[in-house]
Amino acid sequence: MELLKQISYDPAQVTGGYADRLLEIDLSKLHITIRDLSSDFKNKYIGGRGYALKLIWDGTRAETQYDSPENILVMASGPLGNEPGFPGTGKFIIGTISPLTDTFVDSNVGGHFGPLLKLAGFDALAVSGIVRADSVIVIDGDSRTISIMAAPAYDKETDEGSLSFGKRLLEDINNGEYSDSLAAVTAGKGACNARFGIINSLFFDKKRNRIRAKQAGRGGTGTVMRAKGLRGIVVRSSLSKANGNNAVDKEGVRRAGSRLREVISQADPKQLHLSAWGTTILSEYMNKFHLFPIKNYQYGQSSESPKLFAGVFLDRYFTKNLPDGCYYGCNLACSKSSEAVELTRGPYKGQKVNIDGPEYETVGAVSCMGIFDPHFVLEYNWYCDEYGLDTISTGTTIAFFMECFERGFLTAEDIGYKLTFGNMDAVDRLLHEIANAKGFGKVTGQGVARGKKWVAKNYAARNGISEDAALAELNKFAMEVKGLEFSMYVTKESLAQQGGYGFALKGPQHDESWLIFIDQIHKELPAFEDKAKALKWFPLIRTWFNATGLCKLPWIDVRNPEAASTDEPAKNLPTLAYYVDYFNATTGSKKTLKDILNDSERLYILQKLTNLRHGKGTRISDQIPLRAMGPVYFNEYESRAEYYDGWLREQLSDSEVPAIPEKKHELLVKKRTEAYQQLCDIVYEEKGFSSDGIPKRDTVEKFGLMDEQARQLLQSFDM
Amino acid sequence: MAQEMMVLVRFLGMQRVVTKKDSINIPITGDMTVKDILESVKNLYPDLNLDEEMLFVTVNQGKASLDRLLSADDTISFLPYISGG
């Protein structure tokens, strides 16, 4: 590989969870800079998402687009990442200005890259600029060098694939051998051609003796990586992972980790049993409660859904009796894998491939396209990973166009073929077209927000109506907010989760809040005020996980038996106490849960300010499509008419409920729309925002965020 | 002779794997509660790993407590807590 730039360095030793160093690489100038991070910086911005936010707030402008040279691609773990004595510490954050939302987005991903980056001496990596020819970066803590190199050319198949290229690169850099001292991130050709490109996080799994991959799926981080001319980043460190954080109180870390491991080993087998089934177990429960996003979120349930339940994947595909953690020490081990699956479609038909997954979201995405074939799920999963496409956004976007076709907004001439729900051949064709920017794939690769405008323009011209009128109709079932496609849950019957998606700062992804069960099923949030409090608390604690390098699942998806006797069992506070102990033992601080929530709120407000700067921070950007609130079309209403009629009777007196079904549907839509607006008012008040969703001055000042940029920004909104 | 009253217990996820059934009918008398049915299911399928502290119960799709009195033809599910990853 041709060396473009190399520097030598002395790796910083990690102490108390931090290396206190940032690695900055400017690809345009081929500059490599190591910057010390102050204690004030780490105390204020914690790590992970916080570091990404602060670097992007300071280093980019309102005009910065995803492919602007000044856009920054930040990768950062956090002070609690890399501790094999505590479950779920392999997570790191990739943050940037998104090609989908045009504002800050971050995606969390597991694997070894974040921990190894820290062992190599860096809390975060920030890549800016655009390199002239495709390149790779190698951060080698062993040889104490950081290099920018011309990307190697293998063969066409390998070079175009994210998984294939990453595997070959890892082998190449380590003299033909895989090792768990190395990890890589890569993006494939799909990320060049679609706005929802992903970054694969590749690591060596000793038990399987192969390279595995997890995905930073949301928001187009892979598209940014390829726009920078960056094909891959490799990090190496042979330092021991045990006690890699050099915790201040090692016994405290051991104690907290041991308690969490005990809860997981006792409770998970009696609950979701993620260690056996992975997240595919959710399909069955989502279907039971009408939450499965079938046919572009029209229906929550189908008689065909059992074909996509976890038992099918466990019986036919998942490897059994092998722990599946994405990092050492995690006994939840939910990262399931399917080995030697034969591809029956696409350019690699006939090949046997190893598939890391599927996860629930990928299964949901396939149901969203009206397909109920488990083998298709596997193939869709692999091709998306290899091409570097987000399975969620790809599925939601294709499903939207399917509905456009079935409702007459798109024709077979527009697409080139009939894109109907459940049509596997059509999806297969379109998936490869997206990856290669061919045919209708060029439109689909733009995502729902841009795609709906394309449809509106063509439909309006064909039918002699205004584009605005066409777009207004499409907006009802175009499942995006702020430019990001919805993840895989039907929210029609949970007002709280409508807010969970609508207010989510990155767009409708459930990692900020997932309140469907406590709202819709457990009925624990009966009043608007209850929903508003949950819509403040859950995003804050979830933000903290994304700032510290932690996986949320051991907390949120394994209910500690002791939580039953607490006032708010859904918060799982007994387990959260282990996390607070772990933080304090690692860093030497004496924080309480309240302190941690305050730290998180600073990051939350900074992200809100960033959204405001990029035109995505006011009330209008929090509006959700009608499909997320209730049945858009009469067929949806009819599919659960008895339920919806009951809902109306609960809200109104008998005399107020019309007799005619069409009128009932109309009234239902009106009530749901009004409820969402009322929720906006109450949630903004709870969060310290104006009625237009803008943070008030005292909210910004309270968290020490009123710098000159924030002052001018708020002034421009008359705040 | 009066017709026997029954409730339906639905099995989901791992429960279906253990029981090899989608559901079973259990006869009830007038004053039986969800807890009684839970005990019956535990006796029928000791491998089910049902722990009342870790269960969320629904009767006819709605949340229910363990001391809820049952009626004929009620449908009961014993579910894990789900919080959305």
Describe the structure.
The complex is a heterodimer of chains A (719) and B (85). Chain A is α+β, with helices and mostly antiparallel strands. Chain A folds into three domains: 3-236, Aldehyde Ferredoxin Oxidoreductase,  A, domain 1 (4-Layer Sandwich); 272-485, Aldehyde Ferredoxin Oxidoreductase Protein, subunit A, domain 2; 500-558 and 592-716, Aldehyde Ferredoxin Oxidoreductase Protein, subunit A, domain 3 (Orthogonal Bundle). Chain A is 44% helix and 13% strand. Chain A contains 32 helices and 17 strands. In chain A, the strands form four sheets. In chain A, strands 1-9-8-13-10-11-12 form a seven-stranded mixed beta sheet. Chain A has a six-stranded mixed beta sheet with strand order 3-2-7-4-5-6, with helices on both faces. A two-stranded antiparallel ribbon of chain A has the order 14-15. In chain A, strand 5 (92-97) and strand 6 form a beta hairpin. In chain A, helix 14 (374-387) packs parallel to helix 17 and helix 15 (391-406) packs parallel to helix 19 (448-463). Chain A is globular. The model of chain A has no long low-confidence stretch (mean pLDDT 97). Chain B is built from two helices and five strands; from the N terminus they run E-H-E-H-E-E-E. Chain B is 20% helix and 28% strand. The termini of chain B are far apart. In chain B, strands 2-1-5-3-4 form a five-stranded mixed beta sheet, covered by helices on one side. The longest helix of chain B is centred in the middle third of the chain and has 11 residues, at 34-44. Chain B has a single domain (5-79), classed as Beta-grasp domain (Ubiquitin-like (UB roll)). With 85 residues, chain B is α+β, with helices and mostly antiparallel strands. The interface between A and B is medium-sized, with 39 and 22 residues.
